[in-house]
From TrEMBL:
It holds the Pfam family Hexapep_GlmU. GO terms for biological process: glycogen biosynthetic process. One of its GO terms (molecular function) is ATP binding. This is Glucose-1-phosphate adenylyltransferase. Belongs to the bacterial/plant glucose-1-phosphate adenylyltransferase family. Keywords: ATP-binding, Carbohydrate metabolism, Glycogen biosynthesis, Glycogen metabolism, Nucleotide-binding, Nucleotidyltransferase, Transferase. Homotetramer. Residues 14-282 form the Nucleotidyl transferase domain. It comes from Rhizomicrobium palustre. Its EC number is 2.7.7.27. Involved in the biosynthesis of ADP-glucose, a building block required for the elongation reactions to produce glycogen. Catalyzes the reaction between ATP and alpha-D-glucose 1-phosphate (G1P) to produce pyrophosphate and ADP-Glc. Alpha-D-glucose 1-phosphate binds at Y105, G170, E185, K186, S203.
């Protein structure tokens, strides 16, 4: 049957954004992982939401759970442009014991099951289930087309990864037609792609269902004793065995700007991965293009004055090389190299920052030297502080990773005084 309009118009995106993100350590002490800042202006969740909007999906729900205040505030501020009269909706769905008193969301599948009535009220024909904590650009319309054309019960977004990398993922065994024949979590000997003995298909945590089929599976799973109520552990393995599950390769729908040569996907779930993905943006031609006007990154656009660079004396020159500097930053006689500054950073005279990710409203005192750091929001660096030159001292004062990245919070600074 010929399609009269994009499938995205009959689709609802459901973003699972309740994860603790404990591997990001103190960065998730006061916020959920999807609410962690990224790229100078955005939050991690903005990538999944922007992909949905750019793909043409105008009905979106976000399920939240742990430490959700920062995330909910961001969603209310930056994602409040949907209009019901245009058949658009944006629902924030905190765990609220809607099914049974004492029951929060028990797993990813339960986070959808508990809100079946809200999904039903939107009447979507298709559902795209998304993780809210990955950085990537993807056209979900292309995945929807494959789902409908293949007649699948579920279509699963998959990354091609090496056999060694696959040991940390849920891995698909597939036949020559892309039909999933097995699904194993973090296997020691992962199945490989036919014809590619060193490459595996890893789940991205992106699923497409016909809504009716999704409801059937959620209700069946909810009635199954011993289920962990999780897509990856329960729903997907059941459909692989008893239904038709089809793999969708990320490379088939990844959105790439002119300078992006490879499909870009990152789980910035550790301090090292978070630091590296942000610092990568300072490259002349970064692997992820935030300047692509054809596939914009939507977020809360804070009203702020322009960035400002002041003083022009030898040794006290406000400058930034290979750096991203956001609005309301004042670089006052400081020198930045390969840095990423979020809104409202103040870097004072004679300070030197290199390979630094600096979250909003941080203050860098005079003559400080910081290298290979992540500063949490609102950190005040004392005058003359040096980080990144003495590994033993750094490890005593701050959280230092094996690769030498120092995560600094204000509580850590306060303990030094």
């Amino acid at each position: 049957m010929e399609r009269r309009y994009p499938l995205a118009r009959d689709t609802m995106a459901y973003v699972l954004a309740g994860g603790r993100g404990s591997r990001l350590k103190e960065l998730t002490d006061v916020r959920a992982k999807p609410a962690v800042y990224f790229g100078g202006k955005a939050r991690i969740i903005d990538f999944a939401l922007s992909n949905a909007v750019n793909s043409g999906i105008r009905r979106i729900a976000v399920a939240t759970q742990y430490k959700a205040h920062s995330l909910i505030r961001h969603l209310q501020s930056g994602w409040n442009f949907f209009r019901p009269e245009r058949n658009e909706s944006f629902d924030i769905l905190p765990a609220s014991q809607r099914v049974s008193e004492g029951l929060w969301y028990q797993g990813t599948a339960d986070a959808v099951y508990q809100n079946i009535d809200i999904i039903h009220s939107n009447n979507p024909e298709y559902m795209v289930i998304l993780a809210g904590d990955h950085v990537y650009k993807m056209d979900y319309e292309l995945m929807l087309i494959q789902h409908v054309d293949s007649g699948a019960d579920v279509t699963i977004g998959c990354l091609e990864v090496s056999k060694e990398e696959a040991k940390g993922f849920g891995v698909m065994g597939v036949d020559e037609k892309g039909i999933i024949t097995s699904f194993v979590e973090k296997p020691s000997d992962p199945p490989t792609i036919p014809g590619k003995p060193d490459t595996c298909l890893a789940s991205m945590g992106i699923y497409v269902f016909n809504t009716k089929k999704l409801f059937e599976e959620l209700r069946r799973d909810a009635a199954t004793p011993g289920s962990s109520r999780d897509f990856g552990k329960d729903i997907i393995p059941y459909l692989v065995k008893h239904g038709k599950a089809v793999a969708h390769k990320f490379s088939d729908s990844c959105v790439r700007a002119e300078g992006e040569s490879e499909p870009y996907w990152r789980d910035v779930g550790t301090v090292d991965a978070y630091w590296e993905a942000n610092i990568d943006l300072t490259d002349v031609v970064p692997k992820l293009d935030l300047y692509d006007r054809k596939w914009p990154l939507w977020t809360y656009a804070e009203i702020s004055p322009p960035a400002k660079f002041v003083h022009d004396l030898e040794g006290r020159r406000g400058s930034a090389v290979a750096s991203l500097v956001s609005g309301d930053c004042i670089i006052s006689g400081a020198h930045l190299r390969r840095c990423l500054c979020f809104t409202g950073v103040r870097a004072n005279s004679f300070s030197v920052l290199e390979d630094a990710v600096i979250l909003p409203r941080c203050y860098i005192g005079r003559s400080a030297r910081l290298r290979k750091v992540v500063l949490d929001r609102d950190v005040i660096i004392p005058e003359g502080m040096v980080v990144g030159e003495d590994p033993e001292l750094d490890a005593k004062r701050f959280r230092r990773t094996e690769s030498g990245v120092c995560l600094i919070t204000q509580a850590m600074i306060d303990r030094l005084s």
